[in-house]
From TrEMBL:
Annotated source species: Aspergillus bertholletiae
Pfam assignment, any one: PEX11
GO CC annotation: peroxisomal membrane
Region forming the signal peptide: none
Principal localisation: membrane
Compartmental location: Peroxisome membrane
Sequence ranges of Basic and acidic residues compositional bias: 170-191
Swiss-Prot/TrEMBL GO biological process terms: peroxisome fission
Lineage: Eukaryota, Fungi, Dikarya, Ascomycota, Pezizomycotina
Name of the featured protein: Peroxisomal biogenesis factor 11
Spans annotated as Disordered: 163-191
TM ranges: 141-159, 225-244
Family matches, as InterPro entries: PEX11 (IPR008733)
Keywords: Membrane, Peroxisome, Peroxisome biogenesis, Transmembrane, Transmembrane helix
């Protein structure tokens, strides 16, 4: 035990962990998103009522939002790669859930492609008249993608819970079990628990983000303050996994 304690690496400081986090693409994007959401909250709460200060917050929010678009400029490649993998590979989740995932990633890829088409307009390099309608259609695809993601996560959570209950009831009927079978059962339980946790995080993150395109296209009537708060929640929840990966 003493040898293990001596060989154990000391936990790095928070500043060191934050440095590791921001050196990754995902970590830097999440940090920018959190700052953007705080800027939106500051604008809506009018913490500093001076018009010049509010204008500065609005400029900061728009510039950070533009910066984040560069991070995801080529993300549509990953989305369509996911679709290609779902179409070509054998899936254990069933035909229906596979179709849901194909629709989810296809809509997300189309959203990113359409958004990329307007980036020169956002940079004031090449303004175009069709910027607004293209962005509206892009956000519609983003809404569809998030809705399918939440639907798929809910279905996956229900199926995982039902399957775990059936395994538990089946194991209760068997009194004589070997040690290796117990180890496998514990491993399956931990894997099932991790899967359920990931699905619940996905519901929270995509459920919060669903409000953004819903408001943009006019399908929801929600204040910008609520949007800012939900952005903070989704960013913190999704950024937790990115934080852990950055420390590995």
């Amino acid at each position: 035990m003493a040898v293990q304690k001596l060989t154990q690496k000391p936990k790095p400081s928070f500043l060191r962990q934050f440095s590791n986090f921001t050196r990754t693409t995902a970590g830097l994007e999440k940090t920018c998103r959190l700052i953007q959401s705080f800027a939106q909250i500051a604008i809506e709460l009018e913490i500093t009522p001076a018009s010049t200060t509010i204008a500065q917050w609005e400029t900061a929010r728009s510039q950070i939002a533009l910066t984040r678009r560069f991070f995801r400029f080529f993300s549509f490649i990953d989305c369509f790669s996911q679709v290609y993998g779902l179409l070509g590979g054998a899936q254990d989740q069933g035909l229906f859930m596979t179709l849901v995932e194909i629709g989810r990633w296809s809509c997300l890829g189309l959203y990113l492609v359409l958004e990329d088409l307007t980036i020169l307009h956002a940079m004031d390099v090449h303004p175009v008249a069709w910027n607004a309608p293209v962005l509206v259609e892009a956000f519609k695809f983003w809404f569809y993608s998030l809705a399918l993601s939440v639907f798929g996560a809910v279905c996956g959570l229900l199926f995982t819970s039902s399957s775990s209950r059936s395994k538990t009831s089946g194991n209760d009927e068997k009194k004589d079990t070997k040690n290796d079978e117990k180890a496998v059962s514990k491993s399956d339980d931990s894997q099932s628990k991790a899967q359920r946790t990931a699905l619940m995080k996905r519901i929270v993150v995509d459920g919060c983000d669903l409000l953004i395109p819903g408001v943009f296209v006019g399908w929801m009537q929600i204040s910008d303050l609520v949007i800012g708060v939900t952005m903070v929640i989704s960013t913190v929840v999704s950024g937790g996994d990115a934080w852990v990966k950055a420390q590995a």
